[in-house]
Design goal:
The complex is a heterodimer of chains A (285) and B (171). With 285 residues, chain A is an alpha/beta fold. Chain A has ten helices and 17 strands. Helix content of chain A is 28%, strand content 32%. The longest helix of chain A has 14 residues. The radius of gyration of chain A is 19 Å and the shape is globular. Classes of the chains: A alpha/beta (285), B mainly alpha (171). Chains A and B meet through helix 3 of A and helix 2 and helix 5 of B.
Amino acid sequence: MLKILDYLPDVIRNNILIEEERLNEIRIRMDKPVFYVADSREYVVKENDKPVIADKIMIDNLILKFCSHSKYAYEYAIKNGYLTVEGGHRIGICGQAVIIDDTLGTIDNISSLNIRISHEIIGSAKMMADMVLKDNKFSNTLIISPPGFGKTTVLRDLIRILSNKGKNISVIDERGEISGTYKGSMANDLGNRTDVMYCMPKVKGINMVLRSMKPDIIAVDEIGTTEDVRALLEVYKSGVNILATAHGIGKKDIKENTMLHLLVENNIFRNYFSLNKDRSVNAEC
Amino acid sequence: MLSVKVTGLLIVIVSSTMFGFLYAETYKNRILQLKEISNLIIIIETEIRFYKRTLPVIFDVQSNTVPFMKSVFENILVKISVGSDMESLWNEEVEKLHFCTYLNEKDIEFLKKTGHVLVRADAQNVEKMFLGLYRELDLIIENAIEEEKEKGRLFKSLGILFGLFISVVFA
């Protein structure tokens, strides 16, 4: 399997002085210094004591590498502002929106990349699992945190634990980062009873697995749109359990969210876990 | 003595005629190889447009479709895994086809253009880019057929005539 550093040009790879396991993200912006974050501290990539400056050629070549030299195959992802590479690492992208017939066609002239390194931390959701699964009964759970606090890492581990405890879980992995699925095989361990629908729009995926996979739990990452909420209400009505994550700081944020408040009002979730930067967890009911 | 001379002359006529025919055959083989390339491009376009498979996957699956392209695909797959640039690898590999196929400079240039299209295509322009390739390849094949008609016949006749000429001179 390719490691994320293998994708990077020598000038960056050779000057990141920290092992990949400790890296959180690498930020590459056109005509600006390259930064990386490790153990929540930011560093500048330097060569001979001078910051390494990213240019258009570097970014274009990186995009081609991330896309396996096949941009057409990643059109949906690019249009949605990200790319996912082998190992489930997500690359956020910014650039020029190309509008075709009043809809977003693609993102061209990409000028910024945020490479977020995915980590599989086995056991990170153990305590959470004990709380959400009592007498082998799972109660709907929402994991809440701002970006970069480890929602996906915790979700991944919770899925693995629940799956190995006998629950059939269908994961709608829109960006392929929960499972790190590449060419059909998963880079991350999601347990023995987990089915993954990857690179599939969330709502479509939810409807499909609901009808075809007879899951005990449907797991989705980063819910946030009206369509997501509607789809989850359908899941709830059908009697299937839900495990999801959302951006926010706590239950209060979800309550006040213009779209997600419906989930609170309809008592969809029994457990709300908010993650803190220091990896501690607050539980609310 | 006469029989040796007649045999010698016959050998000269037959070998020069064969040489002419063999040389003429290269024009026919070039057309066949261009048609194989045309079929291969159709397959690649289908893989790209309808299955959205990535180039390394397509190269892996299609490496046996056209025998003379096998080494191109296989070498690219080996080198791309160490992080090289796909377009320059493609150009480097198709350049080698000069020595092991009947393709000429123009055909190799066309293949290089194909590599550029494969690497640069996105979902918005892929159809049009392939359409451009088909048009150009059709024209190349048309010209190759014309060339085969003209030069093929010419080299066949030249082979026979050269043999006869030598026979007359040394008879």
